[in-house]
């Protein structure tokens, strides 16, 4: 069957990566979490005290940032490696979430990440999720999805996820972070979060996982048919 590129963009924590992983497994595609790249760069900047408001510091620091995804058969997912070290666990923490949208708004950071993401798409059979995948990274993707869900649903989902690892996290903290990130992501100057004109909207506030996957698999089949 013909392989295509599927892009999933949308607000923070509306289940983009869950859907992307399910699609990749079902279709035997490669899943790429573009947000993990911005999170890993943020981790590097924090660890090395790089001031991301100073262009020269950013440009110099990025020369020493090497990002790589490696498949872990145990978790059945790709994990993020920063300069050879598995940072999958650290990049999901709140200290990173608090700063990642500021870092991701920096022009040089975006150019650095987008260039690598575009290269990953030279082969088809890819599902990539993020904020600008359908608009900037793969504007010619065969299937583009723009995901959204009610803020209360999104906060609950992310709170549950984070609470498992950190019992001191509060629901207010999570809500504040999601709202702030959405605001920065949608209002930044370079490639802001927005729906590509040809993207299909998926509001999953009222859908369970099975219903969602069934619906999207139909879109995938339609997209493959339309491009064969
Ligand atoms: O999983 P969650 O929705 O919380 O976010 P993520 O996909 O891990 O992305 C973390 C942050 O990286 C976002 O809030 C954006 O600021 C940034 N990002 C971006 O600017 N462009 C992308 N293609 C992906 C993420």
Our count of domains comes out at 1
Residue share in helices?
A: 40-55%
Count all strands and give the number: 8
Rounded radius of gyration (Å): 17 Å
CATH H-level superfamily title: P-loop containing nucleotide triphosphate hydrolases
- DSSP helical segment count: 10
Would you identify the CATH architecture? 3-Layer(aba) Sandwich
Find the CATH topology: Rossmann fold
The small molecules bound here are: cytidine-5'-diphosphate
Structure description:
With 228 residues, this protein is of the alpha/beta class. It has a single domain, classed as Rossmann fold, CATH 3.40.50. 49% of the residues lie in helices and 17% in strands. The protein has 10 helices and 8 strands. The strands form 2 sheets. It has a 5-stranded parallel beta sheet with strand order 2-6-1-7-8. Strand 3 (67-72) and strand 4 (77-82) form a beta hairpin. The longest helix is centred in the C-terminal third of the chain and has 18 residues, at 209-226. The model has no long low-confidence stretch (mean pLDDT 95). Cytidine-5'-diphosphate (CDP) is lined by residues 12-13, 17, 34-35, 38-39, 100-101, 104, 130-133, 181, 185.
Features:
228 residues; alpha/beta; Rossmann fold; 5-stranded parallel β-sheet; 3-stranded antiparallel β-sheet; globular
Task: Note the topology.
Blueprint: E1 5-10, H1 16-27, E2 30-33, H2 34-47, H3 55-62, E3 67-72, E4 77-82, E5 85-86, H4 94-97, H5 100-104, H6 107-120, E6 126-130, H7 133-137, E7 143-148, H8 151-165, H9 171-187, E8 200-203, H10 209-226
Parallel strand pairs: 1-6, 1-7, 2-6, 7-8
Antiparallel strand pairs: 3-4, 4-5
Bound molecules: cytidine-5'-diphosphate.
């Amino acid at each position: 069957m013909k392989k295509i590129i599927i892009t999933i963009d949308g607000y923070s924590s509306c289940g983009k990566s869950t859907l992307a992983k399910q699609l990749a497994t079902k279709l035997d595609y490669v899943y790429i979490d573009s947000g993990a790249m911005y999170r890993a760069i943020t981790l590097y900047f924090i660890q090395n005290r790089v001031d991301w408001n100073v262009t020269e510091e950013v440009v110099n620091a990025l020369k020493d940032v090497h990002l790589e995804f490696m498949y872990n058969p145990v978790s059945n997912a790709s994990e993020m490696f920063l300069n050879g070290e598995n940072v999958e666990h650290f990049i999901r923490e709140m200290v990173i979430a608090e700063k990642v949208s500021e870092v991701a708004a920096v022009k040089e950071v975006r150019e650095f990440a987008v260039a690598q993401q575009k290269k990953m798409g030279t082969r088809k059979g890819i599902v990539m999720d993020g904020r600008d995948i359908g608009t900037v990274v793969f504007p010619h993707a065969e299937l583009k999805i723009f995901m959204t869900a009610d803020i209360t649903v999104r906060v609950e989902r992310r709170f549950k996820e984070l609470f498992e690892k950190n019992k001191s996290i509060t629901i207010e903290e999570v809500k504040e972070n999601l709202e702030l990130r959405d605001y920065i992501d949608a209002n930044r100057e370079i490639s802001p979060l927005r729906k590509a004109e040809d993207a299909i909207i998926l509001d999953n506030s009222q859908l369970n996982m099975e219903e969602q996957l069934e619906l999207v698999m139909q879109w995938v089949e339609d997209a493959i048919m339309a491009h064969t």
